[in-house]
Specification:
Elements lengths: L12 H29 L3 H27 L7 H21 L3 H21 L1
Helix pairs in contact: 1-2, 1-4, 2-3, 3-4
Length: 124
């Protein structure tokens, strides 16, 4: 007689928080692209893009926090922490380039960040 073993895969709470943080970051980067279009076509676009930049930066900091919380208690891989830290560095560079009005680097970097964020979300 064969014994059947069934297990239920549970997602650790830290991992779920990490996925939500990456999704929030991806959404805010996408909304920055939308507000960049509004920046070119409407009077309120600059305000919306400026507020969105702060929200996106906060989402990047939340991603770092979520990565640390997912890694530290369980002792898993520190790779998500490095990825999140890299995003925070990219977000910092993005903010500096935006303030300095360097669209030739600011725009492609934003596209790169969005692609990397979607990739990180797909991997989670």
């Amino acid at each position: 007689m064969a014994t059947q073993v069934t297990t239920t895969a549970s997602v650790p709470r830290g991992s779920a928080f990490l996925r939500v943080a990456i999704a929030l970051q991806t959404l805010t980067i996408f909304l920055q692209a939308v507000s960049a279009g509004l920046l070119l076509t409407s009077s309120y676009g600059e305000t919306l893009h400026g507020v969105g930049a702060r929200v996106m930066y906060g989402a990047s900091m939340l991603y770092v926090l979520a990565a640390v919380l997912a890694w530290k208690p369980g002792g898993g891989s520190s790779r998500p922490v490095w990825h999140a830290s890299g995003f925070l560095v990219l977000a910092s560079v993005q903010v500096v380039l935006g303030i300095a009005h360097v669209p030739s680097v600011h725009l492609p970097l934003g596209v790169l960040m969005f692609g990397l964020s979607v990739l990180a979300l797909a991997r989670r």
